[in-house]
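Input for the complex:
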Amino acid sequence: MDEARDEAAGHVPAISRRAWIGIGLIGAAGAGLSGRSTAQGASGAAASDEEKLIVRSLRPLNLEATSTALDHRMTPANSLFVRSHFGAPAVELETWVVEIVGLVQHPLKLRLDELGRIETASKTAVIQCAGNGRGLFRPRVPGTPWERGAVGQAEWSGVRLADLLDRAGVQEGAEHVHFYGSDAPPSPKISAFVRSIPIDRARDPSTLLALRMNGEPLPTLHGGPARVVVPGWAGNNWTKWVRRIVVSREEAPSFYMQTAYRMPRTPVPPGAPAGAVAMLPVTWMNVKSLIASPVQGGSVASGPVEVRGVAWTGRGHVTKVEVRVDDGSWKEATLRDDPETGAWRRWGFRLESARPGRHVVVARATDSEGEVQPETPPWNKSGYLWNGYDTVAFEVK
Amino acid sequence: MSTVRYLFMAALSLAIVGSLMVPAPARQDDDEAEMRELLARRSLEENCLICHTMDLIAGQRLTPAQWKAEVVKMIGWGSPLPKEAADPVTEFLARHYSDREPTPVPTLATLKDVDSYEVPKERNAPAEAGADLKRGEKLYATTCANCHGPKALGGDLGPALVHKAILDRPTDYNRILFEGLRRMPGNKQTLKPEDSVAILAWLRSLSYPVPLDPGGR
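Predicted:
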């Protein structure tokens, strides 16, 4: 990475020997600190451009959608968040083959054209990074400080994982299905990004090995040519660039299954000793709403204000979204889209009159399991599954 | 010189040196702090940025204890950061990226414009027709394998190259190969353009051997 690139990547520029003392200040200014403004504040200036992504890091490439880009039923591939641990492979360099091995009667090797001849299944589903909202937890936690946009929805299509497992013939005792991708870690000393899901979840008819997104071949940055789709579960389970599927008695023995992407069974306060509470893999998402319009820090013309957004959950579906403006009471928003497990519902609320000046709008969702989006979710040390009230401050001109 | 006179002169010179040293400690501390800063920054750039960009660090605001835990974790993952550099780097991180400061406002970019080696440019594949793969393999073994590993799966000082998007970005590949990058020396003097084509063609011909187990820890 050259100097210019490092600088663009938030690197503190090299400075003269005598100026080292002031580096903290220079670093802060160079990084564009401006009080309490957030990434969404930064996006306010160019909110019309939905293809602009918030750059969290260049390597690994971590890109976050702006809330404006999420003001749709489907998120276009070019505005969907991007996340991986080891970067996209150069997928075209070899003939892609997916193998299914382990506790199966007939180990399989299938090329993409062979996968394409198996009955196609499609599912509209929300994908959300397990760490979406990590940057909102206090005390802060290490890791990419995603705020609101590591989420999106698409129509995924490909092969039902259950169909693949049936073809291979799962043997007795099989409990988990492991997925190996083509994203090599930087060195063999580092655990590959290998994840597993329980066999029942793999057999669920909604669980896919997706080859297409929104009707197009799955783009490389989103896991193409083949990624796992686990509707209702967080993105850590949606392994990208799948090359090998292993049916096993055990969970995957990888760092990314046994240590990372785990949360305490019951909340553990900051600073409490680790190990007191069992750590479970991050699976089901929790109920959450997002305000897509107005944008954080944006301004709108006087007159009625359309507050719009999306809401989703893990188990079940969203049944209610409520909106609160300034110090007012909660009012129910109108839900669009039929309820569908794993998919989000768009919602809207018309604010008939808002005085010129600054306003704060807050949203919360409720799902069919009776779960209500909390004001602040329990803290966890890795910053997973933030689902606090979504809050947007805007100005009426 | 008499003993008395010698002792007097010695005492005098000590007094002079002593008086000169009165304001010195502050400057010496400054110089030492500068040097520590410089060394810590260099350690960080040379060891941590092998695997990730600086923005991954600079976007976070953590407590000294959290930075310490991050450094320990990264060393556990195989970061070649020398043992003696761990504390200075931890202090550097805590000083510049403190949880008492607000997080920086990130930049915006379209997917088309984002300047990352991790974005494959599939239509930008190099012309490799006629490239000498055998020669590429040999040159790789003598020039690159020491750091990037014999099969391009990476090592302590050079990241994995096999199947990486950089192999779809010949301009970036060539710049790094010829000009070097941080600890990686440039190869302008030793490699010709056709050598670079041969090495790239060989790298692009490699299959990524999906491991049989996840490896690492």
